[in-house]
Amino acid sequence: MNVLIIDGQGGGMGKQLVSAIKDRCHDVTITAVGTNSVAASAMMKAGAHNTATGENAVVVGCRKADVIIGPVGIVIADSLFGEITPSMALAVSQSNAKRILIPVNHCDNLIAGVDNKPMGALIEDAVNMLISLI
Description:
By secondary structure, this protein is α/β, with parallel strands linked by helices. 43% of the residues are buried.
């Protein structure tokens, strides 16, 4: 199974996702795409099998992924302080992959009905969803 993790800014969420998935899901290939080089580097250091940076890497990765995981902003153009381009959001939204979107109330996108859980709990929920898909 090919899992695409998309993250931006400092890559902290992506780093935690890569680590948690590597610990619990041994039959997946993790491709991590950062919207910037800092995020990509963080996910690479966490042990992603493949890493890349930028808009085209997101678009290509979405074509090859079975599951896409990242903050909910990856489907919203101009989110993550402008790091998610319209082409990136469209590629994630139109991908045939299953999407596991982590609800993060940042960057002017507020999600009603979602408790403000600690990031660790959100990561755990996302990994459990991935395991249910495997």
